[in-house]
């Protein structure tokens, strides 16, 4: 690897940190919809694969930490991954502990990153010989994953019943597009369907506004009052061991460690599962909440990092929710990458390690410092300057763009249909993880169901 | 009620319906407009133009629409 490539890797990692620090502070921005399109653009621009990987790793590490900050600071989740923290964050915010919580989040994320990179590199090495075999049974694994996530979720029966109808919806649209010839037969549209699922709950809420009676329910006369704790008096220590208690360090290490082995499962699901179970044994409500927050912050990093690193190095197909969603473009971005020729095939072992280390170290060190020092001021800036309307607007226009690019005007309405259906199911209690798994298992489900 | 000033809570924050409609229209027109002027045989440029359009739409909305939030800075000293 020559120096120019390394400089490019460092530069692109810095750009990722810069972009995603701001995006992360915007409340409610979904990880997939902010990571995927920009990564796709970087790939299509002809960036060298090893530089793309550094960019992406820096982006997810930055986003995972920064997304957590608004929960503590202003009581709004920065993204999907930080929604499990909401309850604990709000509890601690009311106690006036926001600044402390942010520092604990930063250390948690540091622990998560440091633990999960070596572990997922080792795991990839172990799994690599089986990569070809795993690839063959991948569709079955997605199906089992959807069932498994349903069974560990809150609404088991509802989720189980929704799997096959959702699969029919996805495949129904694909067959329609093949039938009318707008996409070549066998080409599975995934990107825009994925965003349709992601944006589903928002679409349902927006459609609800069109109903006069429903609109009056959500109508409010007051602006949203948000209090931001000033962090000017926060103690100056950056030493991670002084910020966390022994209990919190232990829980985050255990959580981050175990999550690596479960990389095929939904990151949000794992974060809730381990975050809650590791903190539940603590009696004191404040300590319980801080442990949950720290552990969840570590889990956010480890689920994302293992979810992208292991499938990329060992398998070469997106066999985890992170790889399917936010990282989808690293596996499949026609005409640059395809499932037969992507980052997995193009990089050597050494290049993987270099890209992952450069991206993650730059991101984790900068964000660790920034969040410890400037969380309040950046947050105040974003909340004062960025209207929620503009955020919803850019979301919807991105969906329009990607849906149109995938399969023309009809697909804008197809994605709308997916959004309405999946969004309604989501509001009833079928979580994202199950829906994403079903999207990938859909060809398999349809293929098998017609045999009966 | 004055329909033009109607505010609703959606996705965890408060928006004004009229501003929301304007923001959505501005963003879509700007995104798809830039997409349309990109060379039609180059998917990369199309995506790039589209993203640039989205950012421009976002910027226009952000300049002309004021956030419906009241920001209070707490000057409380924490331990």
From TrEMBL, chain A:
Keyword Isomerase set for record: no
Any single Pfam family the record assigns to this protein: TctA
Organism, as annotated: Tissierella creatinophila DSM 6911
Positions of the DUF112 domain: 10-431
Protein name (record): Tripartite tricarboxylate transporter TctA family protein
Transmembrane segments: 6-26, 38-62, 107-130, 136-153, 160-180, 192-211, 252-274, 304-331, 352-370, 390-420, 432-451
Keyword Transcription on entry: no
Lineage: Bacteria, Bacillati, Bacillota, Tissierellia, Tissierellales
Top-level taxonomic group: Bacteria
Keywords of this entry: Membrane, Transmembrane, Transmembrane helix
UniProtKB/TrEMBL annotation, chain B:
Keywords: Membrane, Transmembrane, Transmembrane helix
Residue spans crossing the bilayer: 20-40, 46-65
Protein name, entry field: Uncharacterized protein
Species whose genome carries this gene: Tissierella creatinophila DSM 6911
